[in-house]
Amino acid sequence: MRAFLSSFLLTFSVLLPATGNAQDEPGTVRVEQPWARASIGTARPAAAYLTVINEGEDPVRIVGFETPVAEQTEPHRTVAENGMMRMQAAGALEVPAGERMVFEPGGLHLMLMDLAEPLEEGESFPLSVRFAVDAPITVTVPILGVGAQGPEADE
Ligand SMILES: [Cu+2]
């Protein structure tokens, strides 16, 4: 398992440009309030949440998410259909100029598939958001409790 994880870490570091993140162009795109829920082992996917803020004058398109703790990170949307809640792929994600996109329980969320190890409450992991034009942004995602509703609610 350890060798498994380190191969992910290696892949992950190669994906990040050496020059860092969007701090090179301050104030256009920001990623805030990342958090995740502790997972129940590794058999089921985990969920992570964050807010992408676009303070620029052009729309910002999100093209992907990556983290070394999961083989695949997929944006999903929770939708109500005939009174039943179900999830579907979120499709194209574009944050209009001056607006924010909030990932939160019951709505848009990130599904972390094929976890390399369980997400333990109190720990954290890196997650990168890739954009069509802007440089990727990597944030540290704190792992809250299994039933947490958000960073504030957990404190
Ligand atoms: Cu989902």
From TrEMBL:
Species assigned in the record: Jiella pacifica
Record carries keyword Acyltransferase: no
TM region positions: none
InterPro entries per UniProt: LpqE-like (IPR007410), Lxx211020-like (IPR058248), PCuAC_sf (IPR036182)
Pfam families: PCuAC
Lineage: Bacteria, Pseudomonadati, Pseudomonadota, Alphaproteobacteria, Hyphomicrobiales
Amino-acid biosynthesis listed as a keyword: no
Keywords: Signal
N-terminal signal peptide: 1-22
Protein's UniProt name: Copper chaperone PCu(A)C
